[in-house]
Design brief:
It is built from three helices and no strands. It is mainly α and 83 residues long.
C-alpha cells in the first residue's frame, strides 16, 4: 500500500519531523553554533524545518518541547526527508 505525498498521514509525518528537527538543531548560547551539527546558526536543517512548518501555515516556535528519543525518531524517519 502506498500513500500519496500529500496524504494527511505524510503531511503529519513531515510536520512532526520538522518540529523535532527544530528541537534538536537549536542554537548553543555560548558558541552561537548548532547543538546538533556544530554549524553556524541557523543551520540548513533548522532552516528547512522552519520552512516546512511555515509552508503549512504553522508557527515556528523556538523552544519546542523535547520528546524522549527524538534523535532516534529522526534517524528512523530519514527516508521521509527525501520527499
Amino acid at each position: 500500500m502506498t500513500t500519496s505525498p500529500n496524504s494527511p498521514h505524510e503531511v503529519g509525518n513531515r510536520i512532526a519531523i520538522a518540529k523535532v528537527t527544530l528541537a534538536v538543531h537549536r542554537i548553543h548560547a555560548a558558541t552561537g553554533r548548532c547543538e546538533a551539527c556544530g554549524r553556524d546558526c541557523p543551520c540548513d536543517a533548522a532552516n528547512n524545518a522552519a520552512n516546512t512548518l511555515a509552508a503549512y501555515g504553522l508557527p515556528v516556535i523556538e523552544n519546542q518541547p523535547q520528546m524522549p528519543n527524538q534523535r532516534r525518531f529522526l534517524r528512523s524517519r530519514t527516508h521521509l526527508n527525501r520527499l
